[in-house]
Amino acid sequence: MPGATLTRIGKRFGAVQLFDGFDLSVGDGEFVVVVGPSGCGKSTLLRLVAGLESPDEGTIHIGARRIDRLPPGERGVAMVFQSYALYPQMTVAQNIGFPLRMAGRPRAAIERAVARACDMLGLSDLAGRRPAQLSGGQRQRVAIGRAIVREPDLFLFDEPLSNLDAGLRARMRREFAELHARLGTTTIYVTHDQAEAMALADRIVLLRDGGIEQHGTPEELYHRPASLFAARFFGQPAINALPARVVQADAEGMEVATGHEGERLVLPPRAAGPLPAGSRVTLAVRPEALAAAPGGGRVRFAPRAVAYAEWFGGERHVGLGTGDGALTWRAMGGPAPETGAAVTLWAEAHDVLVFAPDGQAMASAPLPRV
Ligand SMILES: Nc1ncnc2c1ncn2[C@@H]1O[C@H](COP(=O)(O)OP(=O)(O)OP(=O)(O)O)[C@@H](O)[C@H]1O
Hints:
The protein has helices spanning 42-50, 92-102, 107-120, 136-148, 166-183, 194-200, 218-223, 228-233, and strands at 4-13, 16-26, 31-35, 57-62, 65-66, 77-81, 154-158, 186-190, 203-208, 211-216, 240-250, 253-258, 264-267, 280-285, 298-300, 304-311, 315-320, 327-332, 342-343, 346-348, 353-355. It is an alpha+beta fold. A hairpin with a 2-residue loop joins strand 4 (57-62) and strand 5. The longest helix is centred in the middle third of the chain and has 18 residues, at 166-183. The structure holds adenosine-5'-triphosphate. Adenosine-5'-triphosphate binds next to helix 1. Adenosine-5'-triphosphate is lined by residues 13, 18, 36, 38-44, 192.
């Protein structure tokens, strides 16, 4: 299975330059999930690869084959849309076999391919039904079946699960993962759902205004976000972000003050070098990285009053403090704290991220040699 390469792509809509010198490489057999806020260019990216839009500049290759000037049907890509785009008058089997009939394949070969796809997707008993007689999840499976029978070099998925309810989404998500494990087809999958991206991706590409904000494994984006934008995009509840000022920073460490009742935190030094005293930074810490128990060498936050506590069966989300000093704490187990009670939270120093005034992450400095 060849990979896909987009090189120096430019794409303009009227006065808006959406992509400008955009590069993306998708490895052979890789499952890349493209995420980003509404309007960042996710769908356009897929449409450019599928041939539903033409780039103003740049090239698109699948393996060594240049495809950006080929008509959509000759690119060796299969795209699955959020809307499924099934033919209502055709049965499941006819819908799945449609691309092969259009390609003039022999009837017996079509029947074999359709039977195999139906078997793989658990649609064999439904092969004679029409789309109106199917559930949303079953319809989406038919759309996937229609993509599979073409044996494309590249799958493109545009928010394929958005029309399904939460339970079905989770199930279909696992089906996507299993299907990818079986077929190994190079895949670009677009979603605006960060949880879906983290669950499915070999690699996540986070888009922002037509550019790549950050790409990497789900773990890298979650634990080592390159920017406050990336930090905020992943995680539910969202990462805590506290505006702070540098009190003092040197090679030994940095001391910062937040807006919460004179709170001062001492953090390890940052690789980017010391910021001058008074610099505005943003501290960020995941709700699950906070703990209500003290421990050696930890960052201690000043007490905050419990504003609310929500129980989700197994975990509790506790809102502490108000305004700029507010923190959300994700507590596993333990009794419900009373509203108004003061809670002191701790975090490991490496779990407290620091973002420079421009929103870029300030990586922790490597530990000094001893
Ligand atoms: N055919 C078009 N004509 C004009 N502008 C367009 C066209 N297609 C897309 N755009 C603009 O390009 C930008 C990116 O659109 P795109 O649909 O790729 O975003 P998206 O990230 O998929 O958003 P969403 O998550 O809302 O689907 C938007 O500002 C959109 O208005």
